[in-house]
Task: inverse folding
């Protein structure tokens, strides 16, 4: 593999070129989740750059959650267990502000042709196949979230072999362990909607009941959209909470 920094003219700073190349190698599986990258000295020598330039590239990758740096040990590709992935991105809390572990009830799991919405948000070709998952998220015995999830089949080859009874409760650690797809960034849009007939049946609420709609795009290490998730939440006993720093 050619890991040298390109010598052709580029408007990107040198550290950015190093960062991009490192990211491609991580995404290609050269360093799987849980493994350490070579030392800063070794990488700087390999790329023919100063350690300061290499460190700046690693600092950006660390800030973006693409690598983790351990004092005295080095830099590793992160690995997440189910709880870590869940509570990193699950923003629904109870009235006391506490997280509750959601349990999933799956209603649909199948491969289908991507809709216009899925094509647009997942940046797919017309006619591409997606894996569609419909489920309800139950918090402390109450059905709170009605979800539709679309996954590009090209990113998750063979996912159709996991049926309704074999898909795990939490997905992002499953993506990483089974398909080497690591979710590192989430983009969400929120708006108020009214419950439709499906929401009414699955969440045990009247048609027209006010819900919080969340459209989520999950991005992987290379900023590819790998999931479109449409969640409709009953916030009578819960709220969407996010802390900005």
Result:
């Amino acid at each position: 593999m050619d890991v040298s920094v390109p010598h052709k003219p580029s408007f990107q700073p040198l550290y950015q070129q190093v960062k991009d190349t490192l990211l491609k190698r991580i995404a290609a599986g050269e360093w799987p989740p849980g493994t350490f990258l070579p030392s800063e000295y070794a990488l700087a020598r390999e790329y023919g750059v100063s350690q300061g330039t290499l460190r700046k590239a690693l600092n950006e990758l660390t800030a973006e959650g693409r690598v983790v740096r351990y004092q005295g040990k080095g830099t590793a590709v992160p690995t997440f267990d189910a709880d870590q992935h869940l509570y990193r991105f699950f923003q629904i809390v109870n009235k006391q502000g506490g997280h509750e572990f959601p349990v999933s009830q799956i209603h649909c799991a199948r491969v289908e042709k991507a809709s216009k919405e899925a094509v647009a948000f997942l940046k797919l070709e017309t006619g591409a196949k997606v894996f569609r998952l419909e489920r309800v998220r139950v918090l402390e015995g109450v059905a709170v979230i009605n979800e539709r999830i679309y996954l590009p089949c090209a990113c998750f080859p063979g996912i159709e072999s996991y049926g309704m009874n074999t898909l795990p409760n939490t997905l992002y650690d499953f993506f990483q362990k089974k398909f080497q797809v690591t979710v590192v960034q989430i983009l969400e849009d929120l708006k108020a909607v009214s419950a439709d007939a499906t929401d009414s049946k699955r969440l045990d609420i009247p048609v027209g009941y006010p819900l919080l709609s969340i459209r989520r795009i999950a991005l992987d290490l290379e900023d590819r959209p790998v999931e479109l998730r449409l969640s409709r939440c009953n916030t009578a006993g819960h709220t969407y909470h996010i802390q900005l720093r």
About this structure: The first strand starts at residue 68 and ends at 70. The chain is about 25% helix and 30% strand.
